[in-house]
Design goal:
Aldehyde Dehydrogenase, Chain A, domain 1; 7-stranded parallel beta sheet; 2 domains; alpha/beta; 15 helices; homodimer; globular; 429 residues; Glu-5-SA_DH (chains A, B); GPR_dom (chains A, B); 4-stranded parallel beta sheet; Aldehyde Dehydrogenase, Chain A, domain 2; 16 strands
Chain lengths: 429, 429
């Protein structure tokens, strides 16, 4: 940090610390709300967003105009755009949250000790949770809703591309909270520069958890710079391994779905590994299907030879291809000698998100699930199912690829901590 | 970091990275061991330690000699000393671990989705766990045993005061593991300088978790410097609040036990808060009992006035007294106006470890447990019960004072992560 930056950081520090303190005060109230209170508030927030549709769309248009002026790619513009229909969907997600059970107060474990002490481990809110994310403005609403339902005060730091949209959304949410008798500081938005992020991720004692959600670059910057606890989310270098004992029609459908159903998301497949015994039979059909879907192939020598033979266009895969999360219509392809080689490859290049084996061999499935070190390890299913909604969590705040606290899709439960309540009648040691 | 330090750090970096890679290889084997394998190995480790008693005692004497030469305080010498009896106790702790259930493989949650996908969230080892701790050499054995039972490879970094003892213990453990057919790198010891700690806590991708255990200074250094996930343990600025509705004899026994039963540990009380309505009755008796136990009083104005009146020696408490974890025969004392004031005081000075209310008033107990933000919140019991052993966890790796992943006493379960296993028959989206 240069001396010139110092005053800016100091400003950000005091601004973020003030937000942290306000968040802590709000969190005290949130922790004591009943489920009925919170569900009523969620419904009120949904109503408020729908009522503010025109205002939100206008702010969103300002963001889009600025984005187009700055040459924002079409894909990002699509993600940023809010229409009345999308706003209704986002409000619907809040109503769906109201219908989910409240994790706060759940008794996780409990026992009575020999001396009569009664122990209960109960779920409690984390307190103040920071979210650092990129352009999609629906994340602003989802995070606010998940925070409210789980009793956490949220400090949100969205991408600058959605600044106007987020500002209006948060303003509407705060007004609606206040009308419900809930401290509006339950949802706060930081809209300063990157120094706000630096201050947020180092606000020890004020912020209990930070969740980054977005590009690998964003996530790594948060993880490296944070002194508050972080849950790393999202990077998915997902493999589909087609075993020698695979049902090849099933393998084709799964690999195609995992790659092409929605290539821009983290649970999309990026790499296809095929057992050498079935490569000659399987890959020609797979290549046809991928080509028809517009997928570019990045092939290792053995899979290149097959592409050559059947006349499919390909590019030889580089080392970095296998390490790349394309998030696009590209796939790396490798032929492996056996299950062990597939597991080794995944060990080396995988990001610990989701890994899939397609096989009818029970022993191979069992070994793959035991040895592959990832948040989700699937047999005979598309990686696209790694998703809080699909898993039945209702909403999702992200997909954790770390091992501490939460691993895989994170819903309401993952936004809670626990507290031990001990009840005695005078016990001493 | 100065340029001069660079080569040292680079050495430490490559040494620790090599340990991390060796740990990952060992962890792959550990993750697949059955409970029977692990329990047999724990028993073998216990036998090996007992058989090596003379060698361990000799190494320990070398550490003690060095410590005395450097003016080590008697208390620290006591903690460092290993006798044949203590070695037998430490070995006994390993045997006790063998008797505990294995957390690995436990199914935490599960469901079958509408499309027939079967989901199971199962406990799996973390992988490679680093421990940074201070002098007591029994922690070396406990950590190795907890790591083995939970399927984690451990990289240990003990205090330099116990260097010889730890080196011999780890050597014996590794030989015993090898005889059991288990990779000896399941337990590794780092015995370089502080640069080893720096390298360990930044070994992202090689180390899954670091647990610091020891002084506040050690813990804060690890938390501030780490880029790998950390579980913060241990600092306990523990309060006992005596409510207006307390059974005063019970309050006396609890406060005395919490303060004096073992003042040097984190679950000992450091501060006594008394409701003003009972202060005049309660404090004189409490002062007598504390004085008889050799406890020094650090009193706020109102509790000073009572001490003055009854002729008990006291020192006026400073602001920093209330923030201090004495770990000694000292207690800060405050008189509060009501329950809310007690909770505010704890909010301000507490470290989130254990907080106690003594009361017969159900509403006060309920409110205290709901509003106090700590790992353990007790009614009518001594804070000394916050302990993995007392809670029935068998062994304990530390007491977490953070909210992520583990809060309160950490046993085997807290050393595990989870993995989602998804079983399908061709499901796609």
């Amino acid at each position: 940090m240069t001396t010139l930056d110092q005053p800016v950081l100091t400003d950000a520090r005091s601004r973020v610390d003030a937000a942290g303190r306000a968040g802590r005060r709000a969190a005290k109230q949130l922790a004591l709300l009943t489920r009925a209170d919170k569900d009523a508030a969620l419904t009120a927030l949904a109503d408020a967003l729908v009522a503010a549709t025109d205002r939100i769309v206008a702010a969103n248009e300002a963001d889009l105009l600025r984005g187009r002026g700055a040459g924002m790619p079409q894909g990002l513009q699509d993600r940023l755009t809010l229409t009345p229909e999308r706003i209704a969907d986002i409000a619907g997600a809040l109503r769906a949250l109201a219908a989910l059970p409240d994790p706060v107060g759940d008794v996780v474990r409990g026992s009575t000790l020999a001396n009569g002490l009664q122990l209960r481990q109960v779920r409690v809110p984390m307190g103040v949770v920071g979210m650092v994310y990129e352009s999609r403005p629906n994340v602003t609403v989802d995070a606010a809703g998940l925070g409210l339902k789980s009793g956490n005060a949220m400090i949100l730091r969205g991408g600058s591309a959605a600044a106007d949209t987020n500002r209006v959304i948060v303003d509407e949410l705060r007004k609606a909270l206040e009308k419900q008798g809930i401290a509006p500081d339950a949802v706060q938005l930081l809209d300063g520069g990157h120094e706000d992020v630096d201050a947020l991720i180092t606000a020890r004692g004020l912020v209990d958890l930070v969740i980054p959600r977005g590009s690998d670059r964003l996530i790594q910057a948060v993880v490296q710079g944070a002194t508050v606890p972080v849950i790393e989310t999202g990077v998915g270098n997902v493999h589909v391994y087609v075993d020698s004992a695979a049902d090849l029609q099933q393998a084709l459908a799964i690999a195609l779905n995992a790659k092409t159903h929605r290539p821009s998301v983290c649970n999309a497949a990026e790499s296809l590994l095929v057992h050498r015994d079935v490569a000659d039979t399987f890959l020609p059909q797979m290549y046809d299907a991928l080509r028809d879907a517009g997928v570019r192939l990045h092939t290792d020598p053995r899979s290149s030879a097959i592409a050559e033979r059947v006349g499919t266009a390909y590019e030889p895969a580089t080392e970095s291809d296998f390490a790349t999360e394309y998030l696009d219509l590209d796939v790396s392809v490798g032929v492996v000698d056996d299950l062990a080689a597939a597991i080794d490859h995944i060990d080396r290049y995988g990001s610990g998100h989701t890994e899939v084996i397609v096989t009818q061999d029970r022993a191979a499935a069992r070994r793959f699930q035991a040895q592959v070190d990832a948040a989700v390890v699937m047999v005979n299913a598309s990686s696209r199912f790694t998703d809080g909604g699909e898993f039945g969590f209702g909403a999702e705040i992200g997909i954790s690829t770390q091992k501490l606290h939460a691993r895989g899709p994170m819903g309401l439960q993952e936004l809670t901590s626990t507290k031990w309540l001990v009840d005695g009648d005078g016990q001493v040691r």
